[in-house]
Design a protein that fits this description.
single chain; mainly alpha; elongated
């Protein structure tokens, strides 16, 4: 079989796999057959780089918020930019269950970080607003856990709500 025809078939099988026209195992088998065992696709080569980039992005967000003397507006813009990047990755990887976890966790963390920083800035010393902010984040986590069927998000929401209730009761 000539090289051009083989590449066309491989691209078609990758399309079937992405759009779930055939079960993933069948597509993997066909890709291994037509690529003679070297079934690395172009999209999978960048996956590790994107996940590593996302981890660096989250560390940069933490550094930008807690360890710099930037104005509150600039910090908010940076966290918002990082949050938008994470949400774009969630939208891009919404059908790939294995990759979806990284940007979802990053988005939840950045949203928590940004909302706590905002409530502390606009309402200093008011613990009720901070508690409401954390509980609102927990409710978002619960909704994400239900929507994507991710048990650890639901568990984090319940544990966060219980911890906030204990902290409020303890005072």
């Amino acid at each position: 079989m000539n090289r051009r025809r083989r590449e066309t078939i491989i691209r078609e099988i990758e399309y079937w796999k992405r759009s779930r026209l055939l079960p993933e195992q069948y597509c993997d088998y066909l890709l291994a057959l037509y690529t003679e065992g070297d079934s690395r696709t172009c999209g999978r080569q960048w996956t590790g780089s994107l996940v590593a980039g996302l981890c660096v992005l989250l560390v940069a967000a933490a550094l930008a918020i807690y360890f710099t003397e930037l104005s509150f507006v600039l910090q908010t813009l940076l966290v918002s930019l990082f949050l938008v990047v994470c949400l774009l990755l969630v939208w891009r990887w919404r059908k790939e269950r294995q990759l979806l976890h990284f940007p979802l966790i990053g988005s939840a963390w950045l949203l928590l970080l940004g909302t706590i920083a905002g409530s502390s800035h606009y309402f200093p010393g008011q613990n009720g607003v901070l508690t409401a902010t954390v509980l609102a984040n927990c409710s978002v986590w619960l909704a994400i856990g239900r929507l994507f069927r991710l048990h650890y998000f639901s568990l984090a929401a319940v544990v966060g709500g219980i911890l906030m209730a204990v902290i409020v009761w303890w005072r």
